[in-house]
Amino acid sequence: MTAKVRFFARFRELLGSDIPAPVKTGTTLADLIGGIAKKNKEGYDAIFDENGRFREFVIVMRNGKRIEHADAEKTQVADGDEIAIFPPVAGG
Amino acid sequence: MITIQREDVDIGRLVAEAKRAGTGAIVVFDGVVRDDNIQEIELEAYADVAVPELQAIAKEATKKFALLHVDIVHRIGRLAIGENILIIIVSAGHREEAYEGSRFIIEAIKKSVPIWKKELTKDGGRWVPGEHTHGSGKARKSRD
Question: What is the ipTM of this complex?
Answer without folding.
Answer: 0.93
